[in-house]
Automatic annotation (TrEMBL):
A GO BP annotation: DNA-templated transcription
Domain Xylanolytic transcriptional activator regulatory span(s) in chain numbering: 52-166
Pfam families membership: Fungal_trans
Highest rank taxon of the organism: Eukaryota
Subcellular localization: Nucleus
Lineage: Eukaryota, Fungi, Fungi incertae sedis, Zoopagomycota, Entomophthoromycotina
Name by which UniProt lists this protein: Xylanolytic transcriptional activator regulatory domain-containing protein
GO cellular component: nucleus
Ranges in a coiled coil: none
CDD domains to which the protein is assigned, alphabetical: fungal_TF_MHR
Organism: Conidiobolus coronatus (strain ATCC 28846 / CBS 209.66 / NRRL 28638) (Delacroixia coronata)
Length: 350
């Protein structure tokens, strides 16, 4: 090393370095950065990855439309990805006008394609748009998406129990029929549809949805390192889907299946008991999970709240239908209806 340092060229280099290090460097004051159009975000993969993340954090729990264990954004249908991105964007706190206009056009172009398709992926995408437009109060587009999702569902026989499909496709088809039942039952209240508006509702699948389809893995868009957290996510999501299915099927089979006016109140009372029983059953399940895993109560309590909100919303729908059928309600019916409305009001303003 000493021989190397004694070499003339190396000595000169050392001297120059020492001379440069003694200089005081002055950096120019940074001027204001030039205006960057929000549309430039569209060219960044991080923007789209964030929309995926936001979607799974805010929407997927409420609208499970596929097996998260098998979802891969690299291979997912483009129409589904577009709907996911749009839904995720709606939950961003910062929505620049230029970017919002682009995302709206992006959604409209996707919808033009979807209404000409006839596939499971088209239903999945339309269900996401249905949920977004319902939340925004965009009645026209909400009804349009709902109608096309239902039409496509019947066209591909979504209500039929066909054994030729793979287990994954059977699972996906089951999720679709559950959601289609729900959006059509809810729609009957405001649209004054007849009792047989769903000609092919399908039979209730008494086999519960298994957690394996919603179990996160390292390839999932979201992933928890904690094994118990992953297990609870899958179990809670599956229980929520089962609750959803049982509750809506109970309402439909009792109140929307050609019930005579003279028997409506008795059928309504029976349905109220069934709906309450189902709600209490799953409330106990989530409370039991909370007791077993107190350190993960943020997961179990979230789903317990979701089924509570869904229960009160269902009861509100039922009372709306009851009032349309029977003008004079007794005092106990009125008191209970007010309790449900009060809960929903507090939920909305909270």
């Amino acid at each position: 090393a000493k021989k190397l340092q004694s070499a003339p060229k190396i000595q000169k280099l050392i001297e120059n370095h020492e001379e440069l290090s003694s200089y005081k460097v002055y950096y120019p004051k940074s001027s204001s950065p030039p205006y960057t159009s929000p549309l430039q975000l569209l060219t960044k993969s991080s923007f789209w990855e964030n929309l995926l993340k936001v979607f799974f954090q805010n929407t997927y729990d409420k609208v499970p439309i596929f097996s998260i264990a098998h979802f891969d954004p690299k291979t997912a249908p483009q129409c589904v990805l577009a709907a996911i991105y749009y839904t995720g964007y709606k939950f961003l706190s910062d929505q620049p006008e230029e970017l919002t206009l682009y995302m709206e056009r992006y959604a409209k172009e996707n919808l033009k394609i979807l209404i000409r398709q006839c596939s499971l992926s088209a239903i999945q995408a339309l269900l996401l748009y249905t949920a977004v437009y319902y939340g925004e109060g965009n009645v026209s587009l909400h009804y349009t998406c709902r109608a096309h999702a239902t039409r496509i569902g019947y066209a591909i026989g979504i209500h039929l129990d066909n054994k030729i499909f793979s287990e994954l496709e059977k699972y996906t088809r089951r999720l679709m029929i559950i959601k289609l039942r729900c959006i059509n039952i809810v729609g009957s209240r405001s649209d004054n549809l007849t009792a047989n508006f769903l000609t092919e509702f399908g039979s209730l699948n008494i086999k519960p949805v298994e957690p394996e389809w919603q179990t996160l893995n390292k390839n999932s868009v979201i992933y928890y390192e904690d094994e118990i957290e992953r297990m609870l996510y899958a179990v809670c999501c599956s229980h929520y889907i089962n609750f959803f299915d049982e509750l809506k099927y109970s309402v439909y089979s009792s109140l929307y299946n050609d019930v005579r006016d003279s028997r409506y109140k008795s059928e309504w009372n029976k349905t109220r008991k069934d709906v309450t029983r189902i709600y209490q059953k799953y409330t106990r399940i989530f409370q039991s999970l909370s007791t077993m895993h107190p350190d993960y109560i943020q997961i179990t309590s979230k789903y317990e709240f979701l089924i509570c909100a869904f229960y009160h919303d269902t009861m509100e729908d039922m009372y709306f239908n009851l009032i349309n059928k029977i003008e004079d309600l007794n005092s106990s019916d009125i008191d209970e209806a007010i309790d449900h409305l009060d809960w929903m009001f507090k939920f909305i303003i909270s």
